[in-house]
Amino acid sequence: MSRAQKRSAARLASVQALYQMDIRGSNVVEVLAEFENHWIGQEIDGVEYSPAEESFFRDIVGGVVREQRSIDPKVDQALADGWPLKRVDAILRAILRAGVYELLHRKDIPPKVTISEYVSVAHAFLDREEAGMVNAVLDKIARAERSDHLQAS
Predict the structure, then answer these.
(1) How far apart are alpha carbons 41 and 63 in whole angstroms?
(2) Which end of the chain has fewer CB atoms < 10 Å from its terminal CB, N or C?
(3) Hey, which of 27-41, 69-83, 86-100 has the most confident mean pLDDT?
(4) Are 86 and 124 in contact (CB under 8 A)?
């Protein structure tokens, strides 16, 4: 499995872990341990969970938790008027937070890669319209925060 595939799996696992934390109120240490020991690279109920780059997984989950106070206002600003982040579905919240964390704090990853990856994650959980919203929100934030890395589309 390539590094890109392991990173894609880490992004997917990160979104699932963030969702679980949001829904259950679990803390980051519990969720990281659970995913690393029981999900990543395992088969559960006939579903094979791909091996993931665990350090990347930990960075995203821990980074979102650590930086959430700076991430959420940026997402709120990028969302349509009247739709603050707290009003969107928990899985959509997890996707947006992870994507924005990566855009803001992983300068080693091109913004277009980050946006494309989280739109793919969105397609796994959400309908086409919501996946489009992920694309729009992440693109808007990338243009504001990392315009030097984006070519005008």
Answers:
(1) 22
(2) C
(3) 86-100
(4) no
